[in-house]
Amino acid sequence: MPKSYVARLVYDRTHLSIAIVRKSLEVVGGITYRPFNHRRFAEIVFCAVSADRQVKGYGAHLMSHLKDYVKASSDIMHFLTCADNSAIGYFKKQGFTKEITLEKKVWMGYIKDYDGATLMQCSMLPRIRYLEMARMLLKQKECVHAKIRA
C-alpha cells in the first residue's frame, strides 16, 4: 500500500491506533482500527510489526492489548479485517476465523473490501482478559498436571 494511503488512514480522526514503542522511541508495531460503536464492531485496517521483531510475540501482545482496551472502553465485541494471504495465519492465532457470523447488514457498506484479501472475524469473550490469558492457561495446565500426579 502506498505510504500516503497509510498516513491518511492513520491520521484520520475516525480511526484509532495502538502501538508498541520501545524506550528508545523505536516503534515495534501497531494496529490502526476504525470503531463502529453503534454497530458493536471495529475494522482492523492495519496491523504491522517490524520485520526484525516478528515471530517474537509482539503481534500477539499488541492484539491482546487492543482487545482488552476496546472491551473496556466501548460496547464493541467484534473485529473484522481483510487479511492478505501472508497474514491469515497470524489472525487465526489471534482468534480470527474466516466464518463471518455477524449479519451482513451490520457491516456491509461500512468496511473496505480489498481484492485478494480474506475477510476474517474475531468475536471477543466478555469475561476474558486477553493480556492474562497465557498466564491463566499455564495455571490451568499446572492444575491438570497436579491432578494427574495425585
Automatic annotation (TrEMBL):
Top-rank taxon: Eukaryota
GO cellular component, one term: histone acetyltransferase complex
Database matches in Gene3D superfamilies: 3.40.630.30
GO molecular-function terms, A-Z: histone H3 acetyltransferase activity
Stretches that traverse the bilayer: none
Regions annotated as coiled coil: none
Keyword Nucleus tagged: yes
Keywords attached to this entry: Nucleus
Pfam families tied to this protein: Acetyltransf_1
The keyword Nucleus is annotated on this UniProt entry: yes
InterPro entries found in the cross-reference section: Acyl_CoA_acyltransferase, GCN5, GNAT_dom
Domain annotation N-acetyltransferase: ranges: 1-125
Listed GO biological process terms: positive regulation of transcription by RNA polymerase II
Stated name of the protein: N-acetyltransferase domain-containing protein
